[in-house]
Specification:
Blueprint: H1 22-53, H2 59-70, H3 82-124
Helix pairs in contact: 1-2, 1-3
Length: 125
């Protein structure tokens, strides 16, 4: 296989390949957005179930607390159980990583395209 035909391990085009057409780039952004949404959705589900089971909150309060923690705002309802406090602590750490990961996954194609375009422009000169 010729070097220009290869792709990186992430499925992005190699620096020696031309810039991806706009329609394919938008498709790549949609896939990244879907994966980022899945990461946030799974994180939210974990939070709702954990707050409900371990924090002994109702479903709506569990959703509110999980959403606020996952969004980086902080809890709304106080947790009084020991298991709930352990869960809340671990979930807060997990949420920070999940938020950063989802944004990285979502923005990776745009950043790659920008860097690829800059590299092609400097390569042409």
């Amino acid at each position: 296989m010729h070097k220009a035909e290869t792709q990186t391990w992430m499925g992005m085009e190699h620096r020696s390949q031309p810039l991806l057409p706009w329609s394919k780039f938008l498709r790549r952004m949609m896939k990244s957005g879907g994966l980022a949404t899945l990461i946030i959705g799974v994180g939210l589900l974990i939070g709702v179930l954990g707050y409900h089971a371990l924090g002994r909150l109702g479903w709506l309060d569990s959703l509110v607390n999980a959403s606020m923690i996952l969004g980086g705002m902080g809890p709304v309802n106080p947790i009084t159980t020991t298991g709930g406090k352990w869960f809340e602590s671990i979930y807060a750490l997990f949420s920070g990583v999940a938020l950063l990961t989802s944004m990285s996954v979502f923005l990776a194609p745009a950043l790659h395209r920008m860097l690829h375009k800059l590299h092609l422009e400097s390569f042409d000169k």
